[in-house]
UniProtKB/TrEMBL annotation:
Its EC number is 1.-.-.-. The keyword Repeat does not apply. InterPro entries: Flavoprotein-like_sf, FMN_Rdtase-like_dom, NAD(P)H-dep_reductase. This is NADPH-dependent FMN reductase. It comes from Roseovarius aquimarinus. Residues 6-147 form the NADPH-dependent FMN reductase-like domain.
Amino acid sequence: MTKPVLLTLSGSLRKASFNRMLVAEAARAYGDAEVIEGDLNLPLYDGDVEDEGVPAPVQTLIDQVRRADALVIGSPEYNKGISGVLKNAIDWLSRAKPNVLADKKAVILSAAAGRTGGETGHFMTHSILTQLQVNVIHGPLILVAAAHNEFGEDGRLKNEFLSGQIADRMARLREELG
Ligand SMILES: Cc1cc2nc3c(=O)[nH]c(=O)nc-3n(C[C@H](O)[C@H](O)[C@H](O)COP(=O)(O)O)c2cc1C
């Protein structure tokens, strides 16, 4: 049987991003899968640029989304909203024809420095993706608050409650992918 393809997307670009660690943790919790790390370091959406031809890194992302069985999205909130990096990527993806996001399964997670774990940005991401017909795997919001305290030197999540939440959500995704 072929392995399911999981595309991990971090709404933060920095190398030591806690959200990058979080999506890696979720992909590990899924088990046997082909995991691709998407790169959201894309040019800003611009209709003129689009008219000249979709930029190569955007096309790569579109192709990866098309191939993926599920998206695993982790993002901080920035100023109580969705990160610009993630929103820009979604804007580009929303322009692909045919729609690459329709019925795509997705798990959303967030890690942030604040005590709500990026809840407001998480809600926004959920709302935008739902509008684009993404099939978000529902469940209690997975929010890593004070993220700087929750990951070890090895980049692994230390918090057992959160690890349990992630394991449950990825088990749900496994069921959904059959
Ligand atoms: C521009 C900016 C805005 C931020 N706004 C928030 C915020 O609204 N809520 C919050 O909890 N943390 C906020 N933070 C802190 C981030 O949660 C923190 O930097 C987090 O580690 C970013 O995720 P990362 O580790 O994946 O890069 C902000 C950080 C930046 C750079």
